[in-house]
Structures are given as structure tokens and as C-alpha cells.
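Sample 1 of the test manifest.
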Amino acid sequence: MKDTEDTGRVTISPVGFIRTPFDEKFAVPRQSSLVHHGHFEIFFYPPYDCEEAFNGIDEFSHLWITFLFDRIPEDPVFRPMVRPPRLGGNTFKGVFATRSPFRPNRTGLSVVRLVEVKRYNGRVSLIIDGADMVNNTPVIDVKPYIKFVDSVPDAVSGFALEAPKMHKVVFSEKAMLQIKDSGVSDFKELIEEVLSQDPRPAYRTQQTDERVYGVGLCGFDVKWQARAEVIHVLYLEEGMPG
Amino acid sequence: MKDTEDTGRVTISPVGFIRTPFDEKFAVPRQSSLVHHGHFEIFFYPPYDCEEAFNGIDEFSHLWITFLFDRIPEDPVFRPMVRPPRLGGNTFKGVFATRSPFRPNRTGLSVVRLVEVKRYNGRVSLIIDGADMVNNTPVIDVKPYIKFVDSVPDAVSGFALEAPKMHKVVFSEKAMLQIKDSGVSDFKELIEEVLSQDPRPAYRTQQTDERVYGVGLCGFDVKWQARAEVIHVLYLEEGMPG
């Protein structure tokens, strides 16, 4: 193997990157399947963006995206345990028993619904629904979801819980006006979907919390607060949350 | 990112490798879920083999294995189309519309059933059921299968067919004796499962075929022939098929 050293190390090159509304990790939903608004598109670098490489992909409703958690710093020391947010953030589990981004090789894996294969001048991009990656995440591979082998409806998933509890989201008048002025299509619906899952660390959701949070969505810092199980969207600022 | 160049290239290091009965590509079944005999075990390199890294994994029935198709030579030229064997081997499809190993970054993805977490002196290996990788394939990552997000029972899988047609497998007296003498447990059942799927290229299965084939399983070259839809196991030789 040309590119393989004695240690078994290999070099990989992303085939493209994904555009999502999520400017930072905090904004990314814990389950991709719960977000259906906002624009998600995979762009490919040449030569991977040619039409031939996608011939037949329209016949599949879902795709696997293998991607790189490139916002996670590479850790020279292996940390075998992580604290999954869904378990309250203070229970340790083995990294290979979780989907945590803090893992060797930093590879992520998500199933997404294929919405549209965009073709223009012989180049291709893929519009998808509900991805759970930060904007500009490098894509390592795209594969079709093959129901016969990939769907295991009787799988047992241990401590990984089912759908998270959904919260009511209310918007201030100011936020409503700012959302309207933002020019981002379906922005209100997207904010609603993201915040209804309460992105706060799990230990925070157990208590009264006066803090004003910001999530980075579509170039805006969306400010919000959780009061008695209801998420209040307060106002928007341009740019990333400080 | 330390390890990331301007091109976005990253270096990954396998966390381990998988032991399977399949000494060569030809022996690997096209669906992992159809093989339930034979010994499949994932071994991890230190420090990834420590018990802590697998804490909680017993709670999951299935795992995702991300692996490297390291028997596929790295191709300096991107070939955007492949000929899936299931389509007869002469229909071209885009590589991103297939699970072909001939793909950029050569990453493979399989769901496997977790049978047992082996712990000895604080080190861990995983016994699994029915993997579809060649023996000693490098493993890049292991993740739990999370039914709520990974199982999409209503996914549409286009030209990827359902379960392959199964063939009857009969054994010669000589083969039976050799299998008994091999010392490989469940060897007859494993051969039966592998050959019942008829590993010949699809264009071959349409016609009468007098050829004697060999598949490399568990250190043996298992010789067989297909006659009128029935697979005949003739005899075994030690070593890899020539």
C-alpha cells in the first residue's frame, strides 16, 4: 500500500463538505431525524462532483454520511471514557459504547434522507434533510442506505434513549421581527426544531436556569432562555455566539 | 488541526483489526447478516483495548464497524462508476450509489450483532456474528447501533435487491472427511452459508459452468462446482486458492 505505513496509518482526503444551518456544536441537534427545516447540502470537490459518480443514487431514499468531527481537537492522549449528554453529563461510558465525537479517528456516521440530486453543468450536489453536523463539516464518504442490511428494527440500544422530551418554544415580538428581516427561509421553524430539544447540558435541564443562552444558526446568534419547561426566544444578534 | 493539511487530508490509525474465516475477497458474503457460523472477533491495539473504552457496550445488541478495504489497491485515478455484482456485473452505477469497495478513501461500513465482550487481564475483544470483511481487515471505529436513529424500516433502496437467492449445497464424501479432520468448528455450516449465496460473479450464475472454483476459508482452499443450481463441495486443499 503506497499510503500505508508500518503502523497501519492511512491518509484520507474528504470528498466534500456539508452546508448546514449550525454554525457551532451547541446548535447541532442530538438526533438528525428531528430537524426538517433549514438548508442542508453536500458539496463535492472535483473530481468527485461529476454526474457519473452519482448515477442511480436517486433510487435511494436515505444515505449514510461518514464525516469528520473536525471541530474536536485531536487529542494525543486516548481518553477511553466519555460522559454522554443524554445521561445527564456526569455518568461515564466507554467511548466505543457511545456516538461521542471525542473518539479515535474522529469519524462520525449519520443516516440522512435524500431530498434532491442537484445537477448543474455536469456537477452534482446533494440536498438532504435533517443532518446533525456543524456547517462545513468534511465528508469522507456517501453510501446508499440499504434497508435489507442496515435496518435492524429489533436492535436493543441499551442506555441510548428514545426521542428526547420536546419543549414548547415561544418567540418574543422582537425575535419575530428579526427572524422576518433575516431573509433566512423557514428560520422560525428551524429555531423551533432546534430549541424544542433543549440543547442545554442535561444537568442544567433539571434545574431553574436564569441564564441567557445563544446558539449559532445561519449566521445569527439566537438568544434564548428556559423558564419552567418553556423555551423563550428573546432576540437575535448577527455573528457567532461569543 | 495538527494533523490536517491545507488540502483537508487527515491521517487515521486503525484502532484494531477483525478476525474472520474469509481468507480472500471471493469468500466474503455479500450480506453479513446471512452468515452465523464461524468465528468473528475484533481485536484492538493498545491503548484502545482497555476495559474502560467498552464500558456499557454490553447494553447494545448491534454495532457499526467502520473499516478499511485495505485489499483494494489505492487508485490514483478516481473511477466514478462501478459494476455492482448484484446487477450482473455489467451495469454501471455511480460509486456513491453503491457500497462497492472501489471507492474514495476505501471505507467500509457494516452492522454486526454483538455476541460477547471478551475481557481478559483488563483487555477487551469483541466476538461478533456474521461480518462481511476479509480476515485481518483494519477497523477504524466501532459505534453502537442506535435503533431510534439508525433503523429506517421504510427506506427505499432502489436497485439494491433483497436477500439473494439461496442455493442447495451438497458435500462429497471426501470433503466431509476433510472438514471433520480440519479441526475448524462449525466448518461445514460455514461453508454451506457462504456457498449457498453462490459467490460467482453474477454473469456466471446465468449459465452452465463446468469450472472448479476455490474459496479461501479458515486457511483452506475449498473447491466447489455449480451444477444445475446446486453447489457441490468437492474437496479441500490447505492454503489460499492459487
